[in-house]
Amino acid sequence: MRNRTLPVVETPGRDGLAGRLFDLIQAPLRWQLLAAGLDLGLFDRLDPPATAADLAGSLGLDATRLGRVLDALAAMSLLDKTRGRYGLTAEAAPLLRADGTRSMRDLLLTLPRLRHGDVAGLLKDPGPAPAPDMAAPAFWDGSANSLRAFHRAMGAETARHLLSLLPEWPAARRLLDLGAGSEVLACRLADRHPQLDITVFDLPPMADRIRARLNGRPVTVIAGDMNETDFGTGYDMIWTAMTLYYARDLAGVLARIRGALAPGGVFVTLHEALTGERTAPETHVTGRLVPALRGQDRSFDDGTIAAAMTEAGFTRIDSRLVETAFGPFRMDCGRG
Ligand SMILES: C[S@@+](CC[C@H](N)C(=O)[O-])C[C@H]1O[C@@H](n2cnc3c(N)ncnc32)[C@H](O)[C@@H]1O
């Protein structure tokens, strides 16, 4: 912690490019420190707070060097250090413990494998396009666990908040989450808004994993492919986030979504919207670069979804930009 008793002098260029470039030297290290903590299960061994020597003994590591790593994690505000004992900060505990209420562990362990890569190497030789074994249960377990962690930590509350801002929300009775990815949003809505009749739609392996975690909640699960399977009808709200990439005919799928709405219903989508000739927002352009170099560039340009909604017959479309903990997004709402 900085010495608060001394006066602080700001120097020129503190927020300039030189400073940002210098900071990039640190960025991979910060990730390495977090990854080391996750790999070693450090974050699950700090309640009650422990010394470096305690931890080193149980992990079979050198206490001095482990202490340096723990100090660096404390410098990143993930740990508190008091009289030589380390514990997770109150903010980090629910996110980093495996059993944390908003544990991001499964997301942090999987998403970097997709997003990080040797950019120069991929430029020279992208190698064969990755071909995940979609028949393997492990593939779907991994995807479901990662999405569940994302939804628990931030995705579900963001979705619930955005839905609750819409004028249709107070009177809505039937809601469809298309391409839900996990049960987290459906369960949260079912628990907090029992008047809502909730349906989730996802590919069959994902739908099975969602159904298995509903714990008796009255949520309908439709297993299918959005390109072919009937969505049902009479929904007051249809929500779909980061899922329309898989529509083979975007306007065609949107027309079927429109047909599934009840009179007066609203369709809401949340997707990235690239601008500046696909150079912004930075979060999405850099975050999705490695998959793009490997041949999977799915991001939507700004306005693509709204234009397809018009083609699909929506007559009133309103759009807004949404700042989230996982980057800026565009929300398009279609009515009529
Ligand atoms: C990136 S995840 C987004 C999950 C969630 N909507 C969110 O905002 O985090 C994409 C979801 O779409 C589902 N999906 C992919 N192709 C699909 C298809 N053809 N029909 C229905 N769902 C599909 C995936 O299984 C996954 O759950």
UniProtKB/TrEMBL annotation:
One of its GO terms (molecular function) is protein dimerization activity. This is O-methyltransferase family protein. The keyword Ribosomal protein does not apply. Keywords: Methyltransferase, Plasmid, S-adenosyl-L-methionine, Transferase. Pfam families: Dimerisation (PF08100), Methyltransf_23 (PF13489). Residues 25-96 form the O-methyltransferase dimerisation domain. InterPro entries: COMT-like, COMT_dimerisation, SAM-dependent_MTases_sf, WH-like_DNA-bd_sf, WH_DNA-bd_sf. One of its GO terms (biological process) is methylation.
